[in-house]
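On clarity, I found the account of how folds are encoded harder to follow than it need be. Since the whole study asks how a given chain folds, the encoding of that fold should be made plain. For the editor and my fellow referees, an illustration may be useful. An entry of this sort, consisting of the sequence and the corresponding backbone structure tokens, reads as follows:

:::
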Amino acid sequence: MEQEPHLTESQPATPGTLRPGGRTAKVRRAVLDAARDALAETGFHALNMDRIAASAGVGKTTVYRRWGSPVGLVTDLLHDMAEQSLPASDTGSLAGDLRANAELVRATLTDPRMGAVFRAVISAAGCDEECARALAGFYRTRLDEWTPVVAKGAARGEIPAGTDPTELLRAVSAPLYYRFTVTHEEVTAGVAERAVTAALAAAKDGVFARS
């Protein structure tokens, strides 16, 4: 029986810099989808490049040439996740926007597949500096995306001018990640609402004002 041909690419590239169109994009999409599934199923330490290549229908030499290692795969996957993330909300109020932000984080962490992926990536970042930089870059991108909602809230007079948007947004998501990664408690809608209420109250009191 004739085997189905593998997707291949001949030009080398650094993870996260592949051109957006054509066969390269199809190869990247197939490999990153396979890597995400493998992370969810077996975690970072069991990530196997040969199995990912087979699952993606891509030649294993292509996978090794383009991504080099499981760390390279995770790094590019984080770049892709940042690119694909939903844009910030615009509900008309800072409280509404912060609730939307908290719910997005909560929904991601409690999703059976994506929660497992994030747990694996966070674990990888704890033992590999390149993964740690990629994870930090992912969150920096997401924080930058949501920064305007804080500026709009300040412009409406909901919080003091000069409130640090990054610190406020971190205060919203930090309790959720603490339960997810440290105590392994359920991340409920009530937890998300309390995080928003506490962060917003602190912001109104000037806790996050830039010095």
Remarks:
- Confidence is low (pLDDT under 50) at residues 1-20.
- The longest helix spans residues 129-155.
- The chain is about 70% helix and 0% strand.
- Residues 85-204 form a domain with the Tetracycline Repressor; domain 2 fold (CATH 1.10.357.10).
